[in-house]
Design brief:
Elements lengths: L3 H11 L8 E3 L8 E6 L9 H10 L3 H6 L1 E4 L3 H13 L3 E6 L4 H9 L3 E5 L3 H15 L2 E2 L6 H17 L5 E5 L4 H13 L4 E7 L4 H8 L22 H10 L2 E5 L1 H15 L5 H11 L9 E6 L6 H14 L3 E9 L4 H11 L3 E9 L8 E9 L3 H14 L2 E2 L1
Parallel strand pairs: 2-10, 3-4, 3-6, 4-5, 7-8, 7-10, 8-9
Antiparallel strand pairs: 1-2, 11-13, 11-14, 12-13
């Protein structure tokens, strides 16, 4: 059974294995909020998952260790189980969805685990892992719906309370719910006054919907850049713990997640994956009332696939007003482009791309369109440039 003693036992088992990750003050991310970041993205394996996986391994019998373990994961739990198995001399087989980032697949292999790629998403990998468990006799290490795993994740809360004794609120990502279950249980047991908020992606709100409707629900599909929390169905243990200990669950969009990833990189030189940035996205975009609260955002992981990082940054620039596309209708005569460029330059905008095309049917025969991509400071800067162009007589589409 999950108990506070079990969480302390997990901490003792992990003391020579995991890092005690730093807490960083981050006031600029959310002006008006006393905001801090718990940097589990800097944990060994790049994620908090190693905590629960390793503690679970220490609880296995000798016979279970001899047979080996199997797990399924979108990536981070895979690495945690693989490392824990390697340190304990246990054979590990990991089922991953075939869409998992290559970097996570290769990292899992580097810890000595056998990788089995499964067509589909996390839940498909889960079914395959259960099949192999039954066929081969492996012990299944659940990524979230296991009380020992949940206790392992709860050790983050013990660290946090010692690092920041007077916390008012903690914002935590939710996928299957193991992380927030362990942390919420531990935080509320030690100090019931602390508010615990969960965050899911708009495209994978399984726990939010389940808690709202009072019954565990399975989504027909999930779609989000936050692959670490793209879970169709929460666990039974985690659902019950979230119902009891989590104060509120909110969702954030992929664009908001991208903006949070960008802000963390620029302002704090911290690389987070999509799932790792959702707590910051919730704070940045006003999803919760945090005024006057000493608030901690948990950065749960940093294993972002570098092949999608440029796309995430581009979306983050657009979402935060750092990049803008303008479509301007012009008369096709000399000097028009010069005037547009002068107005933008005088206001400090930086044009990065220009596309000029003739007008279509039904438009003025002398008309043309100018599509411009430019770098800007923020939304106010964009509005200023648009107003200046309009005042000069240009028509923005």
């Amino acid at each position: 059974m999950l108990s506070i003693d079990n969480v302390y036992s997990a901490r003792n088992a992990l003391k020579n294995v995991v890092r005690e990750t730093d807490v960083i003050y981050a006031p600029k991310l959310c002006p008006g909020v006393d905001l801090y970041l718990k940097t589990e993205n800097l944990q060994i394996t790049g994620s908090f998952k190693v905590r629960g996986a390793y503690y679970k391994m220490t609880r296995l019998s000798d016979a279970e260790k001899e047979r080996g373990v199997i797990a399924c994961s979108a990536g981070n739990h895979a690495q945690g189980v693989a490392l824990a198995a390697q340190k304990n001399g246990i054979k590990a087989v990991i089922c991953l969805p075939d869409g998992a980032p290559i970097s996570k697949v290769e990292a899992t292999k580097s810890y000595g685990a056998e990788v089995c790629l499964v067509e589909g998403v996390y839940d498909d990998a889960y079914q395959k892992a259960l099949q192999l468990r039954d066929e081969k006799g492996y012990t299944f290490i659940h990524p979230f719906d296991d009380e020992d795993v949940i206790a392992g994740q709860g050790t983050i809360a013990l660290e946090l309370i010692e690092q920041l004794p007077k916390i008012d609120a903690v914002i935590i990502p939710i996928g299957g719910g193991g992380l927030i279950s362990g942390m919420a249980y531990t935080l509320k047991t030690i100090n019931p006054r602390i508010k615990v908020y969960g965050v899911q992606a708009v495209g994978a709100p399984s726990m939010q919907q389940s808690v709202e409707h009072g019954v565990i629900e399975e989504l027909s599909g999930v779609s989000t850049i936050a692959d670490g929390i793209a879970v169709k169905k929460p666990g039974e243990h985690t659902y019950e713990l979230c119902q009891k200990y989590v104060d509120k669950i909110v969702t954030v969009s992929d664009d908001e997640i991208s903006a949070a990833i960008l802000a963390l990189m620029e302002q704090h030189k911290l690389v987070t994956e999509g799932a790792g940035a959702v707590a910051v996205a919730a704070a940045m975009f006003g999803k919760l009332d945090l005024k006057g609260k000493k608030t901690v955002c948990l950065l749960s992981g940093g294993n972002i696939d570098v092949t999608i990082l440029s796309r995430v940054i581009k979306r983050g620039l657009l979402m935060s007003g750092r990049s803008c596309q303008l479509m301007i209708e012009l008369m096709d005569k000399p000097g028009q482009l010069k005037n547009v460029s002068r107005i933008i330059a005088d206001l400090g905008g930086n044009v990065t791309s220009v596309h000029h095309e003739r007008a279509n049917e039904g438009s003025d025969v002398n008309g043309c369109f100018l599509r411009i991509l430019l770098e800007t400071r923020n939304y106010e800067h964009i509005a200023q440039i648009k107003q200046a162009l309009t005042d000069y007589g240009f028509k923005l589409l």
